[in-house]
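Page 37, top half.
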Amino acid sequence: MARKYFGTDGIRGRANSSPMDAETALKVGMAAGHYFTRGTHRHKVVIGKDTRLPGYLIENALTAGFIAAGMDVLLVGPLPTPAVAMITRSMRADIGVMISASHNTYEDNGIKLFNPNGTKLSDEVEIAIEKLIDANPAKLRVSPENLGRAKRIDDAAGRYVEYVKFTFPKRQSLDGLKVVVDCANGASYNLAPTIFWELGAEVVSIGVDPNGFNINKGCGSTYPSLLCETVKREKADIGIALDGDADRVIACDENGEIIDGDQIMASIATYWKNNGKLQGGGIVATQMSNLAMEKYLNEQGLHVERVQVGDRYVVAKMREKGYNLGGEQSGHIIFSDFTTTGDGLVAALQMMAFIVEEKKKASKALRVFKPMPQILTNVKFSNNSTDPLKNKNVKSIISSYEKSLAGKGRIFIRKSGTEPLIRVMVEGEDKNKITKISQEIALEIKKAAKNK
């Protein structure tokens, strides 16, 4: 079923324009508040945000909506997305909300919703809430005596810091490790450096001066070149780049070379398998993960279960099949022993625990396979036009190239759930060949979109 508001990761859009305007946020608060009101107890919602300027607009509108639906609102201010999930569970709240557009720049914003156990909503729940968003608002409002209240939780950041540190092995420390951390001028700006320093690391911090406009701007996990340059200049042991809401992480080794989510998952999976900690006999990954990672893990006797893009689908499959490690190439890594969603800081500490335990450099410990060439091409696409992926010429060229790559590569094409883009991913042994294939498919999609 096509959805009007929700995408791959909550509701996303340009700030102060539908659906990221105050009017829609008010309706979302009322709808979600109404949906999660069950029983006669005082109902609670935890609301956090990142550091982008439009967060003030959405926060206040959501607060009004939840109060109108009869929910008490607990405001935690700028905090990582996984912190909101954790505090939702910790405070026995009925719902958690994170206001963030993740890795996007400040002009965009988003609303991510968590159920009481700190996991993202299922498709079925999102569809039910969508129906309520467009329902008669009079049916969602409570009587004056049942209105909710709002209060600020001042110690939320400290709770999360201790929670993250708890996931690091007690017998270990980061003494002697020099770490560069790039907080993307986002939600972790005042937390990540503290956590690494308290565990003993020498910390060099960048991207820790948010001003409402510079979140993810030329920094963070989406733009890791600054991290790589700083690691080499500072002669650090490892670099950690988080995104705006710190639910994803990209690392770089001591040579300033990128370590993506696939390498992180493969190295930790092998490490955990050898220490008897890995559950499920493998990991969960998405269709975007590199085929070479799958082949490497298969050689280690481990299975890779693939799901559609989106960390909530990864979490759902992990829960269904009993895996305790999964994630995405982009750096959303889920360690279900500790978290219910992607957590960049927990993932960073698991990497560093591995390095410390093995007494290896990051380049040796965290780079365990040679990636197969992978070309990703983004095609701008209006969601209001005819679907170009249903065009017969587009279908034909995709089918033809899939046959030519059989056994030596693959093609994966999808609409972005967070941006007006169609993503064309082609993977194969011959980089020149897959580059040409990606370009020709993208061109055919553009033609189909223009001839709508």
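Page 37, bottom half:
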Amino acid sequence: MNSKPDTDRSMRGFDKTPEPPGARAKRGAQKDAQKDAQKEDGASRRTDASADATPTSAARARQPRRLPRDDHTAQADTVCGVRISHPDRVIDEQSGTRKIDLVRYFEWVAPWLLPHLQKRPVALVRAPEGVGGELFFQKHATRLELPNVTQHPGLDPGHEPLVTIDSAAALIGAAQMGAIELHTWNGVVTNLEKPDRIVFDLDPDPVLGWDRMIEAATVTRDLLGELGLQSWCKTSGGKGLHVVVPLARHAGWDDVKAFARGVAERLADTHPERFSAKMGARNREGRIFVDYLRNNRGASTIAAYAPRARPGLGVSVPLAWDEVGRTTGGAQWTIANLHERLDALRADPWEGYAQAKQRISAALMRRLPRA
């Protein structure tokens, strides 16, 4: 997300791409696979990414290792020091993905995922019985302890502590407790009252074709550009796209939300046949809802490289703008095929994001009268 990768070094670790999680459940245990697993079990390398690491620098510091092909080795059900209960329980009937497959995915993708989680309060969507069962949305620490997460009392008055996930062990701990989705706030715990990004969640009427989503993201980017703001895009892992605007920590929550609402309403006013700035299925018929409410204090958005608790386990994936037109859907990448994209990357799709210290100034607000 933050810096251009050193191609030779940052991609070297992905030469050892794991089999897609879930594939092992469909294969018999072959002798040579068992030998590979035993060798790689003994050679596993786990080093937490630092709190200030960029995705690409984290990838260089902590290369993903190939997942063992045979889960029945001596250490199979202990990952990053966390004991995994019921590892073979299927959590997604559609893909056959088991709990241990999700755990191994989190372990593997940690160098890419952790920089998007560092210091940000995280809300979890827990699916103890899998994606077909009841889902639980958890924003705060509870008596059901999440192994290795960091608690931050006092940041959300009147509530239990907020939590952050700052290490691979915390990722695995969340997965052990049934977490699949990881949603992050638009601010960090060290300066929580000054958000450092705006998120526009482009949420389509399900009848619309994907070409309309590509068009909507491009129009949103162009309007933001006219206002002097750079933006970046990612898939939602579900049915839409997210347009993200990084900010310097300057304006407060109310001003940032007001600006986001102004942008959404400008899009709806200018293109009423394409966009809606009002919630509700009726207001979204044949159009795309520009969800600016993601910018409330306490609201959250699925983190980049985090999966969704939906059949197929789609993943939210950062894109370069010149890639958006070639995408096929919000859940184009899943925990089973994300390795194909990471293998093919030769540059950071969000290059320049961290350097874009943009401000919502009073003059900028005046350009959106409703803001």
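Margin note: Residues 7-189 form one domain.
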